[in-house]
Structures are given as structure tokens and as C-alpha cells.
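Input record, target 12 of the design panel.
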């Protein structure tokens, strides 16, 4: 994982210490989202949307700075994959 996260769209940087300070509200909202929506299905749909967009843009060309967005997608998919792994582990543990 990168030490600093930089968003080219928003121009903010976060150090490791700042990333540890996630508010209780944000944590609760994320937990609520993950428990109400299957992370694996959401991740699959989001990946399909992204790939469809890329396929459509092949005709007209991707935005010149599109590569800068890919890190954010990569990190989001990594988060969703981690949530999926935990989700599946908990389902397996319940069925035992």
C-alpha cells in the first residue's frame, strides 16, 4: 500500500496517521453498506460497469488523465475483495 494517498481530482494528501483517524460515522456507514449489499456482487457489477465504459470509450478515446483514476479504482476493488473474503469467511463459519 502506498504511504500517501493522492487524489488528482481533489488534490488532497493523507498521511498514514491521518488515515487511521476514520470517524465512527464513516465506519458505521461502511459497515451498514457492506452488510446490506453483497461485496462480491457489488464488486462484480462495478467492474463490469468500468469495463463497459472503457469498451465504449475505445471508439472516441479515453480521457487523457484516465490512468490517474485507475489507482482509486484499484484501491476500491482491493477493499471490496477484502470485504468479500471476510464475508465468505463469516458465512462459512456460520454454516459449520
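The sequence produced for target 12 reads:
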Amino acid at each position: 500500500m502506498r504511504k500517501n494517498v493522492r487524489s488528482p481530482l481533489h488534490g488532497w494528501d493523507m498521511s498514514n496517521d491521518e488515515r487511521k483517524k476514520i470517524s465512527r460515522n464513516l465506519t458505521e456507514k461502511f459497515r451498514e453498506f457492506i452488510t446490506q449489499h453483497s461485496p462480491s456482487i457489488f464488486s462484480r457489477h462495478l467492474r463490469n460497469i468500468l469495463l463497459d465504459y472503457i469498451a465504449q470509450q475505445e471508439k472516441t478515446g479515453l480521457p487523457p488523465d484516465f490512468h490517474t483514476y485507475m489507482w482509486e479504482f484499484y484501491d476500491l476493488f482491493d477493499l471490496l475483495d477484502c470485504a468479500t473474503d471476510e464475508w465468505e469467511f463469516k458465512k462459512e463459519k456460520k454454516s459449520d
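Residues 1-9 have pLDDT under 50 and may be disordered.
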